[in-house]
Design goal:
The chain is mainly α. 70% of the residues lie in helices and 0% in strands. Helix 8 runs parallel beside helix 10.
Length: 254
């Protein structure tokens, strides 16, 4: 079926107040369509039918066990539009967080976070053992849940030395939000202010302002960056941090 034909058929079902078993099966099948628009419209139509009282949830739960990841993802997305996402969707959502498609990764993470603290064990696990996109997205989930524990703190600090820049940035973002120990966090961020990647250095400079814990070393590196860095982005970040920490440069020697 061509995309226009599929979309037209899905649109008709998306405005219906009743549907047959075959209609539901048609929509479930199109959750696995390789075209994202078709997949999304099928999920939206299933959500509309569910709100109209059509029994679609059992078929969607069954689709979570499908061999094809696109169909499993479509089922998880549709279930999340109908109501609270079921715990049975966790494995699929974590798998999608490893996708090369950034839109899918963030959509999966947003759904996963709605499950609350119960996702901590699998998310902590994938933050350590997943592929780089999964590790990164897991850290953003931990950041947004803002639940601190020994295990969470450990996986975040480990991420700060990850070989992947995106993972280090996510770990830094999570550290600022979740930390219970500002002095220890500042020590980590000071290290990242010397990172090999310019983006990490800029983010670390901004994080020093957000943490609000000013040490002699923090004052030195922030003022030095604001005055001497060849990186305009780093200078701007340092200047913002100076304002946040209420720092003034030393008076010039006359």
């Amino acid at each position: 079926m061509t995309a226009p034909d599929a979309l037209n058929a899905i649109a008709r079902l998306g405005t219906a107040t009743s549907a047959s078993v075959d209609d539901v099966a048609f929509l479930i099948a199109h959750l696995g369509d390789p075209r994202k628009l078709v997949q999304r419209r099928a999920a939206e139509a299933l959500a509309v039918l569910a709100q109209a009282g059509v029994l679609v949830r059992p078929a969607l739960l069954q689709a979570l066990d499908d061999a094809q990841l696109p169909r499993r993802w479509g089922a998880a997305y549709a279930l999340a539009r109908i109501g609270p996402p079921p715990p049975a969707a966790i494995a699929t959502l974590i798998e999608v967080m490893g996708s090369n498609d950034g839109d899918l990764r963030w959509a999966a993470a947003d759904i996963l976070k709605r499950l609350g603290p119960q996702i901590l064990p699998p998310v902590i696990g994938i933050a350590s053992s997943g592929n780089p996109p999964q590790r990164k997205m897991a850290l953003y989930c931990l950041r947004d849940l803002a639940i601190s524990s020994v295990e969470v703190d450990s996986v975040i600090t480990t991420a700060l030395t990850d070989v992947d820049v995106g993972v280090r940035l996510a770990g830094l973002s999570a550290l600022v939000r979740v930390t219970r120990d500002a002095p220890a966090a500042v020590a980590w961020v000071v290290r990242l202010a010397r990172d090999a990647d310019a983006g990490v250095r800029r983010a670390a400079m901004s994080a020093l302002g957000s943490l609000g814990h000013c040490t002699v070393e923090v004052k030195r590196i922030v003022i030095e960056a604001a005055q001497t860095s060849n990186d305009p982005g780093l200078r701007r970040a340092a200047e913002r941090t100076m304002r946040m920490l209420q720092l003034r440069p030393p008076n010039p020697i006359r």
